[in-house]
Amino acid sequence: MDKRHLGKTGLEVTMLGYGGIKLPNISEQEAAECLNLALDLGVNFIDTARNYRDSEEKIGKALHKRRDEFYIATKTSARDARTVEEQLGISLRNLQTDYIDIYQLHTVSNADTWEAVRAPGGAYEAALKAREEGKIGHIGVTIHRDKQVMKETIASGLFETIMVCYNPMDAEDVAGEILPLAKEANMGVIIMKPLSGGQLTQPKNSRIAGLGGPDAVIAGTLRSVMQNPHVDVVIPGMQAVAEVEENVAVAENFAPLSGQEHEELLRLIGQLSTEFRYGQVCLRCGYCQPCTVGIDIPAVFKAADMKRGYDEKLHYLASEVWESVEVKPEACVECEKCMEKCPAGINIPEQLKQAAALFAGL
Ligand code: SF4
Ligand code: SF4
Q1: What pTM does this model have?
Q2: How far, in Å, CA of 306 to CA of 300, rounded?
Q3: DSSP reduced 3-state for 117
Q4: In this structure, how many other beta carbons lie within 10 angstroms of the beta carbon of residue 273?
Q5: Which backbone phi and psi does 139 adopt, to 5 degrees?
Q6: Which of helix, strand or coil describes residue 8?
Q7: Which residue lies with its CA nearest to atom 2 of ligand 1?
Q8: What ranges make up the beta strands (E) of the chain?
Q9: Residue 204: closest CA among 194, 191, 217, 193
Q10: 234-267, pLDDT tens digit by residue?
């Protein structure tokens, strides 16, 4: 698998990385199988986060004996130095390592957060200290939205890597406005949500025949992201051996899409559900969990997206997801605690009501 130079970090990373966000969905043994297979097949970059529930622990348990075979990137959502220090200690323990290659300030996605992390006593100060102490190698930032903050963090020169959402729909024009700036600043560019938080892996894609079926849509999407000259590493979340094999095959046999293939891909993706727009589409990141009253918010939104996006004959799939939700949206007490954590800026209580209306009478 080809490797790319991750900006000023100097690391040589495989163009496909392992996104650890979905590891909490599978057992320890399944996670170990997926992660070990990824390394066996040549992947050398794994990304996780302190708030991906037990993702760090699973990586640590599965791979601590192979620590010299991969770079590990994790993240903290803490905004103050003291909490970052605590969280870094937990991440190191979970990952069973004494060194994190890239430590990222997570979801710096609005002006207030950006100000808080760089203020005296803020998160950046602790990251800098950790780098001086040799606990981490490089400092990165992840931003889900707000292009102004993206531009300011790039211009600040404080970070060696930037992680942003980018996929062929690119409704926010990240490819045009942000990635070139990051490359000009010699930052490593890491792409999250290449498959739109899993929306492009839904069974509804089975109605797409033109490009060769659902697998081809996923492969086409990954190829389209990888061929952007400003992208260094793409980290789809993976939770099955088959997904690891398929994604590795795309990277190993990487070839850029022709203009015609790209147009076809966009046309086919255009047939899928809702347009990918921040504030409207749930990324299934799970950051909003746990809900105060126990609603599985991403599952509710998944059911609603399936109902809206699928052909009628596939609505039973949406109903299955809806029925699996134990605490229904009506239980929401509108405390809005989830909204503080949602990187997509979704008005969650409001969209829960809309989702419930779709399934009224079931
Ligand atoms: S606003 Fe509703 S969905 Fe969000 S945390 Fe509170 S109870 Fe849960
Ligand atoms: S509602 Fe927001 S925080 Fe929750 S899973 Fe969706 S995008 Fe993530």
Answers
A1: 0.82
A2: 10
A3: helix
A4: 18
A5: -110, 130
A6: helix
A7: 332
A8: 3-5, 12-14, 18-19, 45-47, 71-76, 100-105, 136-143, 161-165, 188-192, 233-234
A9: 217
A10: 999 999 999 999 999 999 999 999 988 888 877 7
Residue nearest to atom 5 of ligand 1 (CA): 291
Tens of pLDDT along 82-136? 999 999 999 999 999 999 999 999 999 889 999 999 999 999 999 999 999 999 9
Q: Please list, in sequence order, all residues whose beta carbon lies within 8 angstroms of the beta carbon of residue 71, skipping any fewer than 6 positions away.
A: 11, 13, 44, 45, 46, 101, 102
**Does the beta carbon of 288 lie inside 6 Å of ligand 2?**
yes
123 within ligand 2 shell (Cβ under 6 A): no
| Nearest alpha-carbon partner for 161 in 132, 183, 145, 176 | 183
* Element at 132 (helix H, strand E): helix 123-132
> 318-327 burial, b if ≥16 CB within 10 A, otherwise e?
beebbeebee
Q: Which amino acid is at 314?
A: L
Nearest to 110 by CA among 348, 347, 342: 342
CATH number for 3-270 (one of 3.40.50.2000, 3.40.50.1970, 3.20.20.100, 3.30.420.40): it is 3.20.20.100
Domain ranges across the chain: 3-270, 297-358
